[in-house]
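Cross-posted from the bioinformatics board.
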Amino acid sequence: MADASIEFKGSSFTLSVLHLKTSKLADIRTDLANKVAQAPDFFYLVPIVVSIEQLDSSVDYQAIKTLIEEFNFTFVGFTGAIAKEQRTLIRELGFSFVNTAKPQTLDKTVSAEKPEVVKTETLADIPERSLFSDKIHRGQIRSGQQVYAKDQNLVVIGSVSAGAEVIADGNIHVYGSLRGRAIAGAKGHHHAQIYCQNLEAELVSINGNYWLSESMEQHWGSPVYIHLTDSELTSSKLI
Amino acid sequence: MARIIVVTSGKGGVGKTTSSAAIGLGLALKGQKVVLIDFDIGLRNLDLIMGCERRVVYDFVNVINGEATLNQALIKDKRVSSLSILPASQTRDKDALNKENVGKVLEELGKTYDYIVCDSPAGIEAGAMMALYYADEAIVTTNPEVSSVRDSDRILGMLASRSRRAELGLEPIKEHLLLTRYSPKRVDDGEMLSVEDVVDILSIPLLGVIPESQAVLKASNAGEPVILDTESDAGKAYQDVVDRLLGETVDFRFLHAKKKGILSRMFGG
């Protein structure tokens, strides 16, 4: 393979953003010195993005970068530029311009100007979804048995028989056939989902919304995941 | 160490006692020392199927209560000398057994016998739990219909959670699926679950498939376990089961409906 030595992949990182409220370099220097003095080790070589969102167009970008690097930050680029000309200028000066995944302002004219913004999961959604650890059950869950993953996701390596019941406060994964009852998001958790390799369930429920077998005709006997969209259960094929 | 095998099902009337008798006798015919225990206290049947009902003097409950010794209660089979039967009591109920004393009896029997076959009562109450508690292996007897499969599934759950092996965290009970009253023609007609369906739902290894057969009823009435009827399909299928229990690899038979030839179609067959 010609390109076996390298590979491009998209990834997300958490970066610190320094929001500037003034373009007066002397003021920034004073405040930054105070801040860094509180925890010099913490800030040492930290990659930093500078937001100029709150500044007007007369910004000395080169001076800001120099100032930031004086305090031993690793300068990554600018963010928060509103006008297109401003962004062009930043790039012409040789600095990178970084877009946030979510627009910081909801001003319509601004969002219209930023078509490159891709809607992804907002940061607020992520901790809620991945809050739970996994409870792993190996082997089949038989008729009459009940397994509850309290404050956890439930992973079943095996099938869930008809007449058995699996309950989780988080998600439910069944690596086998789901023939019994599955109740995810039991304590009220809208994002909980149910995954299974073969849907033949008696009942599935997420956050109190439930389906009986007759509602599952569309994907009966298929590998699917079930989730809530606007308080309606939806099933989608896994493969 | 004797192998303690429980023949169980959850549902009643699926062929537990018929299977216990056939398998017990079959193992004995292969030279093994076998004792058959009837755990169905109050509904004594095994002695009838074995044809020794007129020779019952003492029973399992008498032994448990210390009213008789094991040797007094055990009935030696007249056909095969290495086979004995410990009959149930017809006049008591299932609460007459307790774990501790049953354990003692099994331990005592284990000194003499190679196989202890426990014929379980139906249901999931105390009697059935007692029969499976000390088991090393379980033959889960199932008919190819949904309610029987569901009940077998329930019993499999009990085997995995309520047995001595489960309580002590030992190696789990070895589970075998025995499909009885199987009719390939009715499977083809869509009236019955197929072997594949049942194996898929229960996900345990298949020990045998016994075809639906008139020979079973005839054998029960005569007190001659059906395995002695070597001409019948059911008898042959039980023989295969015994061979598999003894570790042999035997192909499955009687899984498909017999195709009628042109002559038998013309003249009826």
